[in-house]
Amino acid sequence: MTASLPTGSTDTQAGAADAPHVPPLAASSRFVQRLRRRYAGELALLPAGEPRRPGMAQAYAALRERGDSVADALRIVRQLVMERLITLDCEQQAPLAVVTTAVTELAEFALDVACREACAELETQHGAPTGPTGQRAQLWVVGMGKLGARELNVSSDIDLIYLYDHDGETAGDAQGRARLANQEFFSRAVKRIYAMVGDTTEHGFVFRVDLALRPNGNSGPSVVSLDALEEYFQVQGREWERFAWLKSRVVAPQGAIADGSAHALRGAVLPFVFRRYLDYSVFDSLRTLHRQIREQAARRSAGRPERANDVKLSRGGIREIEFIVQLLQVVRGGQFPELRTRPTLDALQRLARANLMPQETADALAAAYEFLRRVEHRIQYLDDQQTHVLPVQDEDLRWIAHTLGYEGCCPFLAQLDAHREFVAQEFDKLLGGKKQPCTRCNGKSAGAAPADLSDLIEELPAPFAERIQAWSDSPRVQALRDETRVRLRQLVQRTGQWLREPDGDAAGQIARHIDGALRWAEWIEPLMRRENYIALLVERPAVQERLLRLLGSARWPARYLMQHPGVIDELASPEMLAGRFSAAEFERELEARHLALRQTGEADEERLLNLLRHAHHAELFRTLARDVEGHITVEQVADDLSALADAVLRLTARWCWPQVRNPHREAPRFAIVGYGKLGGKELGYGSDLDIVFVYDDDDERAGEVYAAYVRKLINWLTVKTREGDLFEIDTALRPNGNSGLLTTSFDAYEKYQLGRGSNTAWTWEHQAMTRARFVDMATGPDDSADCSLCGRFDRIREAVITAPRDRDALKAEIVAMREKVRAARPVKADRFDVKHSPGGMVDAEFAVQFLVLSEAKTHRELIPNVGNIALLIRAEEAGLLPEGIGRNAASAYRELRRVQHRARLNEEPTQVPMSALAAEREAMLALWKAVFG
Predict the structure, then answer these.
(1) How many Cβ atoms from other residues are within 10 Å of residue 817's Cβ?
(2) Entry pTM
(3) Which of 255, 307, 611, 674 could crosslink 301 through cysteines, CB 3.0-4.6 Å?
(4) What's residue 447's pLDDT?
(5) Count of beta carbons in the 10 Å neighbourhood of residue 291
(6) How far apart are CA 491 and CA 540, in angstroms?
(7) How far apart are the C-alpha atoms of 161 and 555, rounded to whole Å?
(8) Average pLDDT in the 125-148 region?
(9) Contact, 337 vs 602, CB < 8 A?
(10) Confidence label for 293 from pLDDT (cuts 50, 70 and 90)
(11) Phi/psi at 161 (nearest 5 deg)?
(12) Rounded distance, CA 237 to CA 230, Å?
């Protein structure tokens, strides 16, 4: 079911246009009335306009100067800020960000002041806290939740965790006495901070403070060291805590933020929150957390029905929007660092840009979030109570409606219901809307789902049943957690249902479902202990079905998935099958991830290598899925794989250059020339890349620098990491082959190819040049490339293939080369190899190369590297081939490529009986005879 989008806006609401003029609305807030009575003389201390940190500091300084204590001055500043915000929000419809930014900056300012005051007071008694090498130890105040995300509401409590960076002890007083362990020193500081910020006095409080999110909760120490936090994450950290730490940041003291020392916290938090793989195991954790929150809200409202209308915790409330966002961030943020952001509204747009959520949905959730947050603020403006429940008094409800621009309660409540219904439906879609069984106090399910596989076996076809029976008896399966075995049983049951579909040979049908099921079993068996893959398939039934179809279509996808199991998440989007590879989009996404990693200090070489590999494998898998489902042709597969290789080469070249020691220029004057299948844009799955590296740089260090650059570039492309490798690289076509330099200057390359001097290219190298092309090395995905190198290469290539030649000598050399290739690939007499036998694809390739090298000078339409099929047709149109010979050969070449492609996908030999493909073979032999006689 698709949720309908709510109408309306958070700025100009339905019914607002004709609303009658009303007196200043802020004055109707009972909280504002109290503030204006109590602090009439102090209101002017806060500078006019939006309350920001410098203005708060100015007001605080004035209060301190007149004699107010630190605690009193902070509380009075808080009251002044609240009065100003209610006025701006209710009477001037200030944007939500004005309110949340002001309250967040108030918290940061108050905590910074309290932290400095508390530590200074303790240092006069016990000396400064120091680390093991004598460096000063620092207290960090970590803001969680809305404080961390800079989204505080006007009556928020603040969730804090106190950390310190180094264990050790204080220096003591002037006589070296009264020393304290750093733990004790900072524990005392925390108590003083709470007194200055959280205690309720005659001026109220600054913020309510909650430390329940600290390690070990309320039973843990009030402050822990960074080392202790890391150990806690590794040993005891729970799934729900990953969501809590998602928005964490150091908010005080300001000095630790300014000098960068607080960044050390990210090194502990990021690996805990964001796993390196797609982490679907958190779905159940979030369901459990959400259910507990719902149950707690239900208990609070038991016997008090007016409490059920909670804009934060009830169905479709603020918390469900936050859960939607955080779930997608935690699941994907390990591999997609561009999703790592704290504010909810920013995260929604990032999710949309990453195609994890339709833009329309992200915008509607953002509108709902802003609306609900503005309602939440008005509820709290009434009495400064930490509540999110709509008031039951008609007058209060009418005031909320009026301050939002509505004529009355009815249109306001209608808009509220529309937003909440949309949010609830989106939440249920993401989490499946499942009701979890209640649990007993021992943590076990009261009515646990069956985990045994044996009762399914009778319903399964024999080959698949045998495999499941082996699982059922396997100690490895028995050793799995109960929850994992329940999930595994679900997957086997679904696979059994899929096997009931009929086999078929028509387009879109699966010829042998049983092959898909057996390959699925073979694929998942070694992954059983990596529970995230089982969790992914349970959470996404459509992914499992598409995976079974893919595995049932050919053998090679199964092998690829064994090597790269994480790519199955690409099947989650049904729109993926209808798309095509976009190099510009691919590069933009990778550059965004690279930037995100640099911003968090994670852009080390290993991380970048894995980033490139994961992205390449995912894109290759998307192409593979479209291919086996019949959505794209063999030629389109080759085009997309070639474009993907170009994009990876560009990115690798860009990211490698800064890694070169002592580069002499900001960007390299460097080019990659693609030959063979890369040059002809005929790449297949697993094809190696035939490339040559050239540079155009007069600097005296150029040869040395570019040689080091190319070695690093080849290493980046070929080295195996935990994510695998990218390509096999063949540089044998460079000048002087394997005995030549890895990279050469453009001048030397040109002389070699054009036969200037004693060191010149062979005929077979000129044949290779017919399929060569310049790989565009633009400096960025949105930049226009420097065309000077591209143009220079094109001129060299044209000069090579249009050079005058002895036609008979050229023919003899190419025929001899063809015989040499054929002799190296013997085929049995009764078999036809679609590539190497007489009448195979190699015949067409050699014929095209001869036609280009012998005729391009007079028939310039043969110069462009447009592929063998197009060149055969152009040759016939130019009168270089008898009528029908070129077109028939082009059609035959296309069909032979298709047969070869399908055979390789299914890991079958490319040799067929002589009776097969007879028409195609005859067309190729006719072409050979027409060209070579």
Answers:
(1) 16
(2) 0.77
(3) 307
(4) 45
(5) 15
(6) 11
(7) 52
(8) 93
(9) yes
(10) low
(11) -130, 130
(12) 9
